[in-house]
Every structure is written in structure tokens, then in C-alpha cells.
């Protein structure tokens, strides 16, 4: 299930750091009932030792945005000035999560998105589109896949790497097992890039102690060929890794 929310403000714009995915993620956690928020944030769902949150969200969309530089205490930072309203898409393979966000947003007046006071202007629960065995998709937030090296560092892969397809497919197997309680040993899967661009994101994990890490991801248009039932199941949890941090959400452009 997925939803589209329109976020507005009494001001003509909202201001967010150029790297603000952690702010949107926090906004979503803060707008769930505390027991559910704590479960998602601290526990989630496990496929053996791998943890999944089974939700994802898009980039923020606005009719106009501007990147600006602000100097404060001898430190220069980049921000994005979004014209209001802004649009955010949220999706989860667990309908209860979307229902709780929907209910909370309906009952809330003033909310905090970073340092901005905002309110929800509209909410729309979106139907799942028709999905066939070959689909053209567009990323709503960039896709990232990686392997963890012996030194605990990440090696990221781009869509031209053979392992990009392999890692996306292996990731799908785990999410499918969690969502359907069915293990699939193998299935046909091919993901062909039509056009893409590299996105470098600094994810701020712990803002107060300035702990962050760099994530390489890819926005673009891709053609996916696989079993429709598999893509239908994965549609609302995202492709690739770090979905709950705002990566891997996509929309269906057309079925081929």
C-alpha cells in the first residue's frame, strides 16, 4: 500500500539541509504510535541476521526548489529551499503502517519537519497499478546496492555492474519471504538500465554527534522483467538496500 501526502506551511517555502533523508525518516517515525514506532526503529523484521523495515519513501517533490548556502558560526552549509506545498510518497508492504500514518496525519495539525512547522494539506491512498512480466519503472528515490567488505566498509555497485542485478535479486528474495512467508529459491529476474545518474547522499545517522556516512545510489529509468507476482509484492517496499532511509522507491511508467 502506498500514499501520497501534500505537506504545506504558513510560509511560502520550507528549508531543509541538502542531505535531509534522515529528517524525513524521523518525521515518519514521529508520526506513528510510539509502540509501533519503537518496533520499527529498534527491531523491524529479520531474515536470518539481516534486518528490514519493509517501508520506503520518495524524494520530496516541489514545483520549485533552490539550493542555497548559509554561513553560521564560521561553518558553511548547503540547504534546499522548497516552494510549498511539497509532495511525499510513502509505501509499505505492511498495510497497518500506512493506515497508522494516514490516521495520524488526519488528526494532526502542526507538525515539525526539521525546523519547519508544517501541516498535511491532503492525503491520497494510491491503488496498485497493473503489473505485467515486463515493466518500465522510474525511481522516486534512488536505488542503492552494496556489499560489506572485511574492513566493514561498503562497496557500492552501479547499474552497469553484473552484480547490481544479482544483489537486487537477492534482496527481493529476502523481502518476498518476509512478506509472503514463502521462500523462493530462484526466479527469472532482469533489470536493464535505460538511463540513470549517480546520486551521492550523506546520510546523517546521529546528527548530535555528527556521525554520518556516504551512500552511492542511482536515479533513473529501468526495465524490469520478472514474474508479476514478485514485482507486485515488492512494489511497496522498494528495490535494493536502505529502503527505510529513503532509497529504492519506484513507480510503474508502463507495461511492455
UniProtKB/TrEMBL annotation:
Entry annotated with the keyword RNA-binding: yes
Q: Where is the active site?
A: 29, 41
Which terms under GO biological process does the entry name? defense response to virus
Q: Which CDD domains match?
A: Cas6_I-like (cd21140)
Q: Where is this site: Transition state stabilizer?
A: 53
**InterPro entries according to UniProt:** Cas_Cas6_C (IPR049435), CRISPR-assoc_prot_Cas6 (IPR010156), CRISPR-assoc_prot_Cas6_N_sf (IPR045747)
Which molecular-function annotations from GO does this UniProt entry contain? hydrolase activity, acting on ester bonds; RNA binding
Q: What does this protein do?
A: CRISPR (clustered regularly interspaced short palindromic repeat), is an adaptive immune system that provides protection against mobile genetic elements (viruses, transposable elements and conjugative plasmids). CRISPR clusters contain sequences complementary to antecedent mobile elements and target invading nucleic acids. CRISPR clusters are transcribed and processed into CRISPR RNA (crRNA).
The Swiss-Prot or TrEMBL record describes its family as follows: Belongs to the CRISPR-associated protein Cas6/Cse3/CasE family.
* Entry-linked NCBIfam families: cas_cas6
Under what name is this protein listed? CRISPR-associated endoribonuclease
Which species expresses this protein natively?
Answer: Deferribacter desulfuricans (strain DSM 14783 / JCM 11476 / NBRC 101012 / SSM1)
Amino acid at each position: 500500500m502506498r500514499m501520497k501526502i501534500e505537506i504545506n506551511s504558513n510560509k511560502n517555502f520550507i528549508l531543509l539541509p541538502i542531505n535531509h533523508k534522515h529528517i524525513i525518516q524521523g518525521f515518519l517515525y514521529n508520526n506513528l504510535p510510539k509502540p509501533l514506532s519503537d518496533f520499527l526503529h529498534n527491531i523491524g523484521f529479520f531474515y536470518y541476521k539481516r534486518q528490514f523495515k519493509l517501508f520506503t519513501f520518495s524524494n520530496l517533490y516541489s514545483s520549485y526548489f533552490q539550493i542555497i548556502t548559509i554561513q553560521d558560526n564560521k561553518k558553511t552549509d548547503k540547504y534546499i529551499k522548497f516552494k510549498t506545498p511539497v509532495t511525499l510518497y510513502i509505501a509499505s508492504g505492511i498495510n497497518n503502517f500506512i493506515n497508522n500514518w494516514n490516521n495520524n496525519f488526519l488528526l494532526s495539525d502542526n507538525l515539525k519537519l526539521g525546523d519547519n512547522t508544517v501541516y498535511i494539506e491532503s492525503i491520497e491512498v494510491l491503488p496498485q497499478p497493473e503489473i505485467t512480466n515486463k515493466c518500465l519503472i522510474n525511481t522516486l528515490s534512488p536505488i542503492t546496492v552494496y556489499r560489506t567488505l572485511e574492513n566493514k566498509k561498503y562497496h557500492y555497485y552501479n547499474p552497469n555492474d553484473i552484480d547490481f542485478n544479482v544483489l537486487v535479486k537477492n534482496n527481493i528474495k529476502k523481502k518476498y519471504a518476509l512478506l509472503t512467508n514463502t521462500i523462493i529459491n530462484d526466479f527469472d529476474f532482469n533489470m536493464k538500465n535505460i538511463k540513470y545518474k549517480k546520486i551521492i547522499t550523506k546520510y546523517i545517522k546521529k546528527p548530535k554527534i555528527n556521525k554520518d556516512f556516504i551512500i552511492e545510489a542511482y536515479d533513473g529509468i529501468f526495465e524490469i522483467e520478472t514474474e508479476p507476482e514478485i514485482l507486485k509484492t515488492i512494489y511497496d517496499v522498494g528495490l535494493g538496500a536502505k529502503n527505510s532511509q529513503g532509497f529504492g522507491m519506484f513507480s510503474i511508467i508502463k507495461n511492455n
